[in-house]
Amino acid sequence: MSTSFQSHDRLPRLHQPDQPPDLPAWMLDPPPARRTAGSRVAAALLALPGAAALRRRWWVWQGRRRLYQRFPNTMKVIGFLLCFAVSLGLVMAVWVLLARLST
What we know:
The chain crosses the membrane at residues 75-98. Residues 1-26 are annotated as: Disordered. Keywords: Membrane, Transmembrane, Transmembrane helix. The protein is mostly helical. The protein contains 5 helices and no strands.
C-alpha cells in the first residue's frame, strides 16, 4: 500500500539548523526601507519642541477607557431614553405640521 505521501521525494524538506537556508541573498539581508515623504514630514514634526510630550498625551488619550466601556448598561439605558425622546420629538413635530396644514 504505497501512497503519494509515503514517497520520499514528495515529503516536505525540513530546514536543518546546521544547513544554510535556501533563501536568496536579498531575502536573507533585505535592503533598508525607503524613506517616504510622509516619514520625512513625520520626523520633522516629531523633532519640534514639546512633540514628545504631546505624543505621550495622545497615547494616554487613545488608551483611556470610554464611559460606554466602563458602564455599558447605564449607557444603554441612557441611549434608550435619548432615542425615545428624539423619536417623540419627531412625532410631535410631524403632528404639529399636519395640524397646521389642515387648518
